[in-house]
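Q: Convert this sequence to structure tokens.
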Amino acid sequence: MSKWLFTIALILVTCEIASPRDLIVKWIHGSESCAANTDPAFQVHAYDDDTIVLRENKCINYEGPFIYLLFGDDKVFMQDTGAAPAANSGMAFPVRETVQKVVDDWAKRHGKSSMALLVTHSHSHGDHIGGDAQFAGQPNTTVVGTKPEDVRVFFGVSDWPNQQAAFDLGGRVLDIVPIPGHEPASIAVYDRKSKILLTGDTVYPGRLYIRDWPAFKASVGRLAAFVRSHEIANVLGTHIEMTTKPGVDYPVGTTWQPDEHELALRPAHILELYDAVARMNDTAVREVHKDFIVSPR
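A:
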């Protein structure tokens, strides 16, 4: 397949008709040969009418991150902007175009002329902020900064990282939970409407990289306390790195994952992670679990 045709194919977007709170979906998962890949740049899946999940094509960037859109009456909360194409890949990366179409279609269905888009981040690593420049300076768009102080001030967290903050999208309230440790500005986001908990790179079916062990341990403790006191439908992170075989992950850099783990984890996985880190003393150690791997760095 020619690079020109491949680029055209990547620009196309698929949107699935989903039942309420639907995660029974076969995600695009790359190709054995990316030169022959015909998947769209972003797969767009409706978890429900007001909650959209995007998965980036792994042939654009092997990280294949997930992006979330939560619609309120007044604002759209976007978490992360994806991973920019690998150098010299020549692949299209239409993240703003894709998101804007989803937002415009939602607004039209709900009788609104436009919606304010709020671009936030699960954390500031490059595979989650790769499309920020596409949103900067766009109409009705606010891009939140990526430093802990930027996040703290925007969401009104007065005691970072110990305090949570509520953020209202208009009839839809989110709880912002600081969880540094993987990265200093990491946050979890709980949606009171759908009961989903977004956990970024801190908890997901993959390698849970720890960069600041004391901060990570404390953050997992806060997450465990949160899930014990809240109804959680699904725990949704930003990658899939595990296979369907318990304890077995795909190698770093994999662009084809034909047998990957499901996206969603459960509250029990957070409690399992909490028990694991609580058993470790002053130093984190690599520990393989069925659905994730504790990975110190």
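Helices lie at 3-11, 95-109, 126-129, 132-135, 148-155, 213-229, 267-279.
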